[in-house]
Specification:
- This protein is mainly β.
- It has one domain: Protein Transport Mog1p, Chain A, CATH 3.40.1000.
């Protein structure tokens, strides 16, 4: 049975790792419940929608002493995110962004996909896959992880582009599938921070 995932449109101007997207950093996991800064820019679900600032000074390094807050979506899920990151989108399609880092959660109806179905995911056709889909467990729940790279649109001022490494996870429960993309610039090490975030994802 083929499972179709929504093909995402490119969002300008600003781009989107399991444990493999960027960092040997340890971060504080003390949760709080204050809400992040929000914008009205709609979130999307394709590699092309992961647009970074492409600013040379915005490296995207998440500090060791980063504080994390908890975002609770009215769509029935929650996740920890770094304090100070901006949020855009709505309950079923949410983006957290800071400098050249981006984390995106997209919710859709459906059952848990297989690795074969993930390989055929239309939203990955334009991406460069660097690690094939593989089943894994996150906090005792089955998940599928795939790693890909994507490039940002040019910065409107400098014309620079940013290449992101993105860890994508598929998690499912109760007739819903969450696709979580965690992107960080190539050469930036945010592995520990992104591991904390994806492991904090909860269905409610």
């Amino acid at each position: 049975m083929n499972v179709r995932f929504p093909l995402l449109a490119v969002v300008l101007p600003a781009v989107l790792a399991a444990a493999g997207c960027g960092g040997g950093k340890k971060a504080s996991s003390t949760p709080a419940t204050t809400q992040p800064t929000t914008t009205t820019t709609p979130a999307s679900t394709s590699p092309g929608a992961l647009q970074a600032e492409a600013a040379s000074a915005a490296t995207g390094d998440i500090p060791d002493n980063q504080i994390y807050l908890v975002y609770r979506s009215s769509a029935g899920w929650s996740i920890k995110y770094p304090e100070g990151w901006a949020r855009s989108g709505g309950p079923n399609s949410t983006v957290f962004r800071d400098k050249n880092n981006i984390v995106r959660i997209v919710l859709r109806p459906g059952s848990a996909p297989t690795t074969a179905q993930v390989r055929r995911d239309p939203s990955l056709r334009q991406a460069r896959i660097s690690s094939a889909p593989a089943a894994m467990s996150i906090k005792g729940s089955r998940s599928i992880k795939v790693v890909y790279t994507t490039r940002s649109a040019p910065n409107p001022v400098t014309g620079k582009r940013v290449t992101l490494t993105v860890d994508r996870y598929y998690l499912a429960r109760g007739g819903k599938v969450a696709t979580i993309d965690l992107g960080t610039p190539v050469g930036v090490d945010n592995v520990d921070a992104y591991r904390l975030m994806v492991q904090s994802f909860r269905w409610r």
